[in-house]
Every structure is written in structure tokens, then in C-alpha cells.
Specification:
Number of domains: 1
Shape: globular
Order of helices and strands: EEEEHHHEEEHEHEE
Number of helices: 5
CATH topology: Aminopeptidase
Radius of gyration: 16 Å
Largest sheet: 8 strands, mixed
Strand content: 35-45%
Distance between the termini: 23 Å
CATH architecture: 3-Layer(aba) Sandwich
CATH superfamily: Gcn5-related N-acetyltransferase (GNAT)
Strand order of the largest sheet: 3-4-5-6-7-8-10-9
Number of strands: 10
Helix content: 25-40%
């Protein structure tokens, strides 16, 4: 782990989680922990998501993209939570193309969220992010990872099914499917 130079409280950022891979189509993608200094690329990423992708990621809710919102996305307490960024180099600049994160929900379980930039859908980015997130959760001793997916988000539900997640209805909200993976 390395210290985050932007944080006075010296939150540790995992340094052993970086890896690269070649997606089905395209250039090399790097998976690494999201950092506080990623504010600008996170803002560009979130701002570039289509209305449909934002709708699916936020379970139908709308969220204003403010500086505070972007800062909250980049401020990860790695002692308990995780955020993995998928980046590529485009025209000499690092570009964020996906993020998967989890927050500790119980001492033995975490809730995940994942989003991939529209033009990168269908290239295996989401699958790699979710697999990496589950491996990190397992290595930290968690027993379960789960998420809430809009029941109309068929591509995400199919991805979860392929990755071994169990799908179940949310009794409090029929528009949401809970996906769960035992680690």
C-alpha cells in the first residue's frame, strides 16, 4: 500500500491491485485503484455517460454532477471499501472507461456498483472489473458481494448470471433485481 499524497489523514491506497489486459477489441486496458487525484478523469467519465447508462447505474435516479459529487466518488476509504478504475491511454492522456466499487455493508458482505462508458460496452470491461472486485473482496475475507440492478437492465443481469451471481427479486421494489455472489 502507498500513502495518498493528497490526503492529510494518510489513507493507504492498495498498490498491488494494478493489472493490464487486452480486451476483445481495442487497446490495452489498465485496472487500478481509483485515486483522489483522478477527479478530472472521473468528471469527464461521468459527464460522458449516456442518459440510459446513468439511469441504469443510478437505479433510475438522476444525480447532478457537481464537484462535491465527483470528489465523493474519488474519496475512497480503502481500509473498508474498494474502487477499481479501468483506464486506457487515448491521444497521450489517461482516460477512465469504467469503474467498479464496493462498500462494506456488513462485516462479511459488500454491495457493489459498476459502470462502463457507453462506447466500451460489449468488450469485456465490465466482466473484468466485476471479477477483479470479487477477487479483492474474497481476499479481504468477505463472504458475499451483492448489488441492485434494474430489472429492465437485461445486459447487466445477463453478465451477472454468466459470472455466477444468483438473481432474486427485491421484495420491497419489483423494479429491482438483487444479484448475489457467495465468495
Amino acid at each position: 500500500m502507498v500513502r495518498d499524497p493528497a490526503r492529510q489523514d494518510q489513507i493507504l491506497i492498495p498498490s498491488d491491485l494494478t493489472e493490464s489486459f487486452q480486451p476483445i477489441i481495442g487497446q490495452s486496458v489498465t485496472l487500478r485503484p481509483l485515486r483522489r487525484e483522478d477527479h478530472d478523469i472521473e468528471h469527464a467519465f461521468v459527464s460522458g455517460l449516456s442518459a440510459d447508462t446513468r439511469h441504469n447505474r443510478l437505479l433510475g435516479g438522476a444525480k447532478r454532477i457537481t464537484r462535491e459529487y465527483i470528489e465523493s466518488l474519488c474519496a475512497v476509504d480503502y481500509a473498508r471499501d474498494m474502487a477499481i478504475a479501468a483506464t486506457v491511454m487515448l491521444e497521450g492522456d489517461e482516460t477512465l472507461i469504467g469503474v467498479a466499487r464496493y462498500v462494506l455493508a456488513r462485516p462479511d458482505a459488500c454491495e457493489f456498483a459498476v459502470v462502463v462508458a457507453d462506447r466500451w460496452h460489449g468488450r469485456g470491461i465490465g466482466s473484468r472489473l466485476m471479477d477483479k472486485l470479487a477477487r479483492v473482496a474474497r481476499s479481504r475475507g468477505l463472504k458475499e458481494i451483492y448489488g441492485e440492478v434494474l430489472s429492465t437492465n437485461r445486459p447487466m443481469l445477463e453478465l451477472c448470471r454468466k459470472l455466477g451471481y444468483a438473481l432474486g427479486r427485491n421484495p420491497d421494489d419489483p423494479t429491482v433485481t438483487r444479484v448475489t455472489l457467495a465468495l
